Amino acid sequence: MASAPHQGEPPSSSSFSEDWQHRILIPTIVAGVAGGGVGLVSKHRKVHGLANISATYAANFAIVSGCYCGAREFVRTTRKTGPDDLVNSAIAGFGTGAILGRLQGGLIGAYRYSLIFAVVGTTVDFAVLKLRPRLRNLTESMFDKNSGSLKLPEWSPIQVLDEQALAAKRAREEKLYAQRKTLSKEE
Asked: What secondary structure does DSSP assign to 119-185, as a single string?
């Protein structure tokens, strides 16, 4: 258990280990799944095979996302800022793009990729910051607070019945079954 920092000391760096799944692991997995989806609709799927191209796209998206998110967290820890600082995203985008671009396309690729990664990464982080409260409200409206299960909307034809409504439904079904049985005997 971490002790409270004394006056004048910087906050503990244990905040990284507390929430790294939400800032690195989950975006990497989501990017991998999105990459697999892009591979499903890729024009190269006929040449290379659907499974092969989907796996390639998924791996590439996951690698890029993992590098970017890791660099963003490294910059956040180094600069001692909060997770919502967009400057961290820009610096991480420049660094990640430069490294991956250098591997992919030499010096010119490093410049090009660093600009692309900085712009795209910062844009995605900005969009996530703006959409997070709306998504939180959406998930709260979709899930029942007590049981944690999905809550059906009022307009849904599917209804979850309580004991009294379930008993009334069974009575109606038994009545209809009895009527059907008498009709089949008469024939």
From this structure: HHHHHHHHHHHHHHHHHHHHHHHHB-TTT-SB---TT-S-----HHHHHHHHHHHHHHHHHHHHHHH
Q: Name the residue with tokens 């910062």.
A: 122
Residue type, 64: V
Q: Say if residues 65 and 92 touch (Cβ distance below 8 Å).
A: no
For 147-168, the pLDDT digits (tens) are 777 777 777 777 777 788 888 8
Higher pLDDT residue, 38 or 83? 38
- Give Cβ neighbours of residue 37 (< 8 Å, ≥ 6 apart): none
Q: Is 168 exposed, middle or buried (0-12, 13-18, 19+ CB in 10 A)?
A: exposed
Is 33 in contact with 65 (CB distance < 8 Å)? no
